[in-house]
């Protein structure tokens, strides 16, 4: 080996180890059983490097956690790292210069070549600089169904939304709530988004979410969606739960028939020892329009004046994207890896359906990459009002939805 190369590799090793071990506080909202199990894979991998993961879990979901994270950052007491969804949630923090530029880490680890789909890294990139490490692909476009509930009701597990609605009265007769829905507004907006794609079609959904086309909201495809959403509201009566994972538990226990929820729900089924295709079934696109949305989670790293922390942040960013962590974390989380060059060791039948859609390019962006956080909050508020106000009609919510989209950014 040439001397210059030996010197160079020696320098690289020094740079990598000079920081010494650091404690990094990592904030996230992964507090359900399945989520906590998944995040422990990240913590174990980080601790195995000799550094220490200081867990900053916040209960109550993303809508509760994000403002707390932001106030820590702008208040001058930032964590070393924090989870946001892929998309536009960090725009203002980046504009304010509060987040660490990871471009050097991304280049050293070939993120541009390995991260798939490329939209995930695009969502981390502002003015050519990379500010986040994507860790997974989560899709909202799923319904999870309880085999036990349908068996008890004496009807086959539905294969699509129409069958779900047709068989719902049988479940109700058997004392089972057909649709499990938690009380938080993001769950009601999320389920509406899934129904819009599945029942209104990808074109209409894209016009509304990407094109901010209020006329499309008033068009025939979305009219169908609002009506179906009104009917779904009736199917959710009788189960009063708040958190998404409590709704998932009802499906696991067979006290509810189904839940429209992102594929993080699989972490709960897995932890409860339930087997896809036997104990539960899954319908991407509600069995109507098979597509995957490519949302998920990314980690951002607030700027820190301590050089050791900065070095540790970069080391952690690289580790999160590494093949080993991608496999261990995503296998527990119910999500798909963000790199095309790793295989999940053993995937169940639902994850396989997701992988097939991804391979066939049947993907759409997540709404969080298209709509600003402010618009999303307005839609959350509107849909939760509808969900909790029986007197509010589908036509009324449709008009108000169109008004929000007309002024959306
Ligand atoms: C999403 C996040 C998922 C999952 C879910 C429920 O925003 O992307 O990882 O944790 O919230 O907490």
UniProtKB/TrEMBL annotation:
Gene3D superfamilies: Periplasmic binding protein-like II. Keywords: Signal, Transport. The keyword S-adenosyl-L-methionine does not apply. Its main location: periplasm. Residues 1-21 form the signal peptide. InterPro entries: Bact_solute-bd_prot1 (IPR050490), SBP (IPR006059). Part of a binding-protein-dependent transport system for a sugar. Belongs to the bacterial solute-binding protein 1 family. This is Probable sugar-binding periplasmic protein.
């Amino acid at each position: 080996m040439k001397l210059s190369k030996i010197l160079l590799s020696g320098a690289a090793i020094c740079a990598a180890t000079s920081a010494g071990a650091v404690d990094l506080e990592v904030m996230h909202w992964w507090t359900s059983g399945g989520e906590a199990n998944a995040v422990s894979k990240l913590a174990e991998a980080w601790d195995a490097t000799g550094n220490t993961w200081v867990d900053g879990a916040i209960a109550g979901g993303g809508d509760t956690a994000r403002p707390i994270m932001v106030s820590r950052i702008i208040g001058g007491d930032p964590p070393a790292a924090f989870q946001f969804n892929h998309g536009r949630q960090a725009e203002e923090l980046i504009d304010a210069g509060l987040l660490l530029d990871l471009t050097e880490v991304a280049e050293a680890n070939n993120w541009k070549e390995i991260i798939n789909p490329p939209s995930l890294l695009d969502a981390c990139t502002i003015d050519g600089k990379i500010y986040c490490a994507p860790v997974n692909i989560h899709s909202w476009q799923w319904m999870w169904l309880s085999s036990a509930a349908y068996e008890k009701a004496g009807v086959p597990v539905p294969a699509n939304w129409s069958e779900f609605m047709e068989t719902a009265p049988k479940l109700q007769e058997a004392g089972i709530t057909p649709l499990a829905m938690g009380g938080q507004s993001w769950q009601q907006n999320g389920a509406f988004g899934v129904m819009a794609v599945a029942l209104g079609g990808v074109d209409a959904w894209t016009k509304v979410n990407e094109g901010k086309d209020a006329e499309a909201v008033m068009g025939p495809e979305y009219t169908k969606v609002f009506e179906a959403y009104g009917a779904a509201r009736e199917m959710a009566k009788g189960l009063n739960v708040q958190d998404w994972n409590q709704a998932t538990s009802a499906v696991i226990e067979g006290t509810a028939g189904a839940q429209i929820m992102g594929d993080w729900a699989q972490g709960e089924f897995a932890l409860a020892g339930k087997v896809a295709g036997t104990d539960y079934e899954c319908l991407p696109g509600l069995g109507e329009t098979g597509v995957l949305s490519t949302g998920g989670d990314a980690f951002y790293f607030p700027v820190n004046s301590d050089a050791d922390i900065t070095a540790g942040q970069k080391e952690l960013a690289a580790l999160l994207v590494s093949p080993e962590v991608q496999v261990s974390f995503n296998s527990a989380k119910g999500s798909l890896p963000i790199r095309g060059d790793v295989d999940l060791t053993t995937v169940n039948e639902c994850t396989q359906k997701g992988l097939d859609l991804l391979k066939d390019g049947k993907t759409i962006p997540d709404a969080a990459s298209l709509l600003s956080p402010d618009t999303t909050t307005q839609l959350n508020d509107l849909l939760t009002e509808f969900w909790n106000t029986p007197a509010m009609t589908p036509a009324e919510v449709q008009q108000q939805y169109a008004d929000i989209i007309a002024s959306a950014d």
